Amino acid sequence: MGATGCLMRQCKMCVTVFKWLPVILITAILSWSYYAYVIQLCIFRIENVAKQILYLFLFHISFVMFFWSYWQTIFTKPGEIPRNFYLNYETIERLEKETSDQSQQAILEQAARSLPILCRNYNGTVRYCEKCRLIKPDRAHHCSVCSQCVLKMDHHCPWVNNCVAFGNYKFFVLFLGYAIVYCCFVAATTCQYFILYWTSKHESVRDSAGDMTTEGFEKLHILFLFFLSIMFAISLVSLFCYHCYLVTLNRTTLESFRPPVFRMGPDKRGFYLGRYSNFREVFGDNKRLWFLPIFSSLGNGVEFPTRRETMRAAAGGDGGENGNCNLPPPSQSLQGQPAHDYNSMGETNMAISAKQGPQPLSMGDGLSFPQKTEDGDTAGLLSTRRKSTTDDDSEGDDQELDFREVQVISHNGSVPRDHVAIGFTGKM
Ligand SMILES: [Zn+2]
Ligand SMILES: [Zn+2]
Fold first, then answer.
1. 148 CA → ligand 1 middle, Å
2. Considering only 11-20, 141-150, 176-185, which range has the smallest mean pLDDT?
3. What keywords are assigned to this protein (predicted)?
């Protein structure tokens, strides 16, 4: 038993070291680049003092910003789930005693009733993590590497040995941006020396005894600096652009592959609030903090404003109550709307005519109502999911998921809030 425990500890230690290897590698490259640029290039090679000072000044700004944002991405907690999302002991016991899915779902539904949750599984059930024994907040996911659920999870990044999520997403985007700035600056300022060394054939890097000369070392450092900075800049540009694109859509990497599912179905642009508001969700309201790796994202990581809420606010706020909500179409940009009006419960109880403008659609005779069966719903949602994940993210992809909420009007003209049927009219 003792030997097994010892072996387990050693295995865990090996895994931990292995997980930190990419971070150690990046830190080593960064440290070497600092030495090569400051000592070998600026101090040994550049003779003009003014040029030396200018290069050193700009280099240190980009180096500090790069290292600061990298550090923050690694060591900031990505987003712990609040305690009230964890099931209590009695509920876990009841859940484990139940054998049927329906009974378990009923227990989870009851537990989720007091929580601010909009998102669901594809079959309409409550999102529950069996490993953490908690009801997942909207946009939270379980990370198998970190063995925990994380708020607004984007992805797990081995290069920072951390989840990129609500707590450090801004730092991650800044880290990519400053890494590119750093690489481009180093590449641009070493370029002329690289060309000089490359074209000069008379200078040998070795002396008569075959040992590397000081000048030879200097050359090698500067050649490597140039090559590595170009290589890293090229590989980071596409990733940075992709994350800038996701920020403007208020979408995580996971959501770009699997859209969030609301009560009315999956909606790839469910959290889209307009490009500027989307940007503010990550970078905050304080412009002075936008480009500093200091936390300034809006919200608490648990509740997120949705496109429908914002549209409802734009339409006057009480449209759902009188059953005649005059909403703009979902593709309309909502710039300037408050992006952090966190009011998430009761989302689907509101009667909304989302796609058809002011005129509500009335279906049925008011006596019999369409029922949503689990199998049919799941099949429909899955086909929608296949459609939405294969489509590109063009500007007009509002149209991809065209869910029409169908109002069922009772005979006296009022809208019974519990009788909002859901119809799928998308281009499936
Ligand atoms: Zn979990
Ligand atoms: Zn993780």
1. 4
2. 11-20
3. Acyltransferase, Membrane, Transferase, Transmembrane, Transmembrane helix
Centre of ligand 1 from the C-alpha of residue 401, in Å: 29
Residue 1 lies in a domain: no
Q: For residue 128, how far is its CA from the centre of ligand 1 (angstroms)?
A: 8
Q: d(Cα 397, Cα 390) in Å, to the nearest integer?
A: 12
Ligand nearest to the CA of 162: 2
| Structure confidence by residue, pLDDT tens digits, 70-80 | 999 999 999 99
> Partners of 261 in the beta sheet?
266
- Domain of residue 334: give its range: 258-424
Domain boundary among 164, 190, 216: 164
Q: How many domains does the chain have?
A: 3
- Spacing, Cα 379 to ligand 1 middle (Å): 26
**Catalytic machinery residues:** 157
Claim to verify: residue 30 and residue 92 sit in the same structural domain: no
Q: Which ligand is nearest to the CA of 129?
A: 1
Contact 169, 70 (CB under 8 A): no
pTM score, whole prediction: 0.72
Task: Count CA atoms within 13 Å of residue 335 on its CB side.
Answer: 5
29-45 pLDDT tens trace: 999 999 999 998 898 88
- How many angstroms separate the CA atoms of 304 and 37, rounded? 44
Tens-place pLDDT, residues 116-136: 999 999 888 999 999 999 999
From the CA of 235, how far away is ligand 1's center (Å)? 32
Are residues 238 and 142 part of one domain?
Answer: no
Q: Does 264 share its domain with 131?
A: no
Q: What's the pLDDT tens digit per position in 279-295?
A: 999 999 999 999 999 99
For the CA of 148, the nearest ligand: 1
**Residue 351 in domain:** yes
Query: Does residue 36 sit in the same domain as residue 94?
Result: no
